[in-house]
Amino acid sequence: MANRVLELYTLLRNRYLPPHELRKLQERKLRAVVEHAYENVPYYRSLFRSSGLTPQDVRTLEDLQQVPITSKEALRAAGLEGSLAEGVDPAACEVTPSGGSTGKPFFSYYDACEVQTRILVGFRALHTAGVRPWDRIVGLNPRARPPSLMNRLGLYRRHYIPQFLDLEEQIQQLRKTQPTVLRIAPSKLRAILHLVDYRLSEIARPRILITSSEVLDDGLKRRVLADLDVDLFNFYVTAEFADLASDCPAHEGLHVNADQLIVECLDDHGQPVEPGKLGEIVVTSLYGFVMPFIRYRLGDISTPIEGTCSCGSTFPLISAPVGRQDDVLRLPSGKILSTINLGWIATSIDGVEQFRYTQESPDHFVLQLALWKHPGEEMLAQARRQVLDYLGEPVSFRVQIVDRLPEDKGKFRYFVSRVPMPDSTDR
Questions:
Q1: Computed over its alpha carbons, how large is the radius of gyration of the chain?
Q2: How far is it, in rounded angstroms, from Cα 221 to Cα 224?
Q3: pLDDT band at 403, cuts 50/70/90?
Q4: Inter-residue contact 303 to 317 (CB < 8 Å)
Q5: pLDDT tens for residues 344-376?
Q6: Which residues lie closer than 8 Å to 150 by C-beta, 6 or more apart?
Q7: pTM above the 0.85 mark?
Q8: Where are the strands (E) in 204-303, listed by range?
Q9: Are 315 and 15 contacting, i.e. CB atoms less than 8 angstroms apart?
């Protein structure tokens, strides 16, 4: 217990390290991870050798850019024997699954020490957001977790509601638990609020609402704040890295957990983008030794934010991800929007078996619907209005009823863009 308290104290202190000390910490950890991966992980040993690199070539943050980017598909192809450190027993590890547009599962592996780091980094994010020992923290989660020591002591009490329960049952559990802190994905929140006329206060009155996994759009945010005086926070969470970046009370961007991760925002040519420009997220873990992630492409796109936050933390800032590289739409004005809300609109149409949006050009969209029963013209017209309201610009949008939607090479995508990704100079 004493070691955990000391580690948490160190993590809290790290948020305010002077920039030169933070850089020294990152580079020291980077050298250790790179040397370990080269010596013990077949995938990275092969990657470095094929690129003509040795661990001695990667000593600084700038040197890291010499290392080729790694994808989920490459690690999956390497298998456990190639992507795990030699001598690691997979059965003794904690395993975290992640999905993706391909539908093929990918599993990340961690030992007990790495799991503890992930937990404490997440705790730091909660503490920074203002969560206190007496709070009741309720989250929708696909699987229940065993009670922590804090829970058993009556501190930071957590309750997990299975997210696959019927919505009415989720609402009943929220009423029963009365969270003071609610963690929920925006799409789940919207689905629940739809049943109570968008009045969260009818169910619970949390003082802190934390969203993650998806983009919280301005429309839903306005409706929540019109009903409740609640402080909204956005956490950027991934299966591979847990809490990658998180909001603080200043709400000036998401703080990257830079003492544990190196996060790059890169253009189409693999070069760092300027602050304010969109780039693809590539991450290097500074604590992962069981299954190292070095320049790992997440596929999300975000924007680096210049300067430091007024909260005093020296951790770098990024914007909340607007979606995945292939899951965002680009409007004629250049504005970028997530497709998550389009998905919610389509699934709210009664009788839809399958749907797909196609952006044919910046100002032309098509929604194809495969139906098991026709919802009626009025509901289709309502969905069309919702889509146009969300897009917010003069575009062409039509709904097309089809018998079925073909899959593309064994995978199904509900959003297809035929608009090319702009060059970094246009972003």
A1: 22
A2: 5
A3: confident
A4: no
A5: 788 778 888 778 899 999 999 999 998 888 999
A6: 156, 157, 158
A7: no
A8: 208-212, 231-238, 242-246, 254-256, 261-266, 279-285, 296-302
A9: yes
